[in-house]
Amino acid sequence: MTKIDLNSDLGESFGRYSLGKDKEIIQLVTSVNIACGFHAGDPDVMAKTVALAEAAGVGVGAHPGYPDLQGFGRRKMLLHPTEVEHLVTYQVGALQAFTSSKKLHHVKPHGALYNMAAKDYDLSLAICRAIKAVDPDLPIYALAGSKTVQAAETVGIRCAQEVFGDRNYLPDGNLVPRSEANAVITDPAEVAAHVIEMVKNQSVTAIDGSTVPLQADSICVHGDNAAALAIVANLRETLQNNKIALHAF
């Protein structure tokens, strides 16, 4: 039977501002990526989200991003690779401290950091070195077929190649930028069909109709998508109906 990891980006509330249906989504996924305070989240949100994830028995991952609360970490920042290495080390270490075992399941970069690293080998190397410095056993979740996958192999850490159920793809295998109208998919049925194609065919149909080969180890659904809960619930059922088992990477 085919197995796949289903992950979601959570813990993105901040202070009095609440974002996403974390408690409900955690019950439906196999791993979560928790904001570490730089693009979203705060110490209280981090502690609460880790506790919810541990209680549900899902993999707890760190979701480090650029220091950009106002822009939700989705704005590009031009930092030296050493700066990136240190800010990732800082955030991963911070979230790890909230876990009961003082051990994380994985690390997944967030937003602009994730997307820039997918095309930038040196930036990816910095992220992977940071992860290895905290825990050499920690895998990174990286965009399937990206420079980050190559960097993980070079640095010597494990890598889960990730696909996105709620995002459209460019012909080069990168995600359609969020500035474009067709970047995000919000219809649960459309997301499910998109994912089944990627998991069964190990490829995705890009926005120009071309077929892009990819490896699917983990599926992401963004927790801040307004339809996230409906999407995850329908996707979980569709995967199981297609005899695809959900299992943490």
Q: Nearest-angstrom radius of gyration?
A: 16 Å
Average pLDDT: 95
Characterize the largest beta sheet: strand count, sense, and whether it forms a barrel. Answer: 8 strands, parallel
DSSP strand count? 10
Tell me the distance between the termini.
15 Å
Number of helices: 8
Percent in strands: 15-25%
Q: Can you walk me through this structure?
A:
With 249 residues, the chain is of the alpha/beta class. The chain contains eight helices and ten strands. It has helices at residues 22-26, 43-56, 81-98, 111-119, 121-134, 147-155, 188-201, 228-241, and strands spanning 2-10, 31-35, 59-63, 106-107, 140-143, 159-164, 203-205, 211-213, 218-222, 244-246. Helix 3 (81-98) packs parallel to helix 5 and helix 4 (111-119) crosses helix 5.
Topology record:
Elements: E1 2-10, H1 22-26, E2 31-35, H2 43-56, E3 59-63, H3 81-98, E4 106-107, H4 111-119, H5 121-134, E5 140-143, H6 147-155, E6 159-164, H7 188-201, E7 203-205, E8 211-213, E9 218-222, H8 228-241, E10 244-246
Parallel strand pairs: 1-2, 1-9, 1-10, 2-3, 3-4, 5-6, 6-9
Antiparallel strand pairs: 7-8
Helix pairs in contact: 3-5, 4-5, 5-6, 7-8
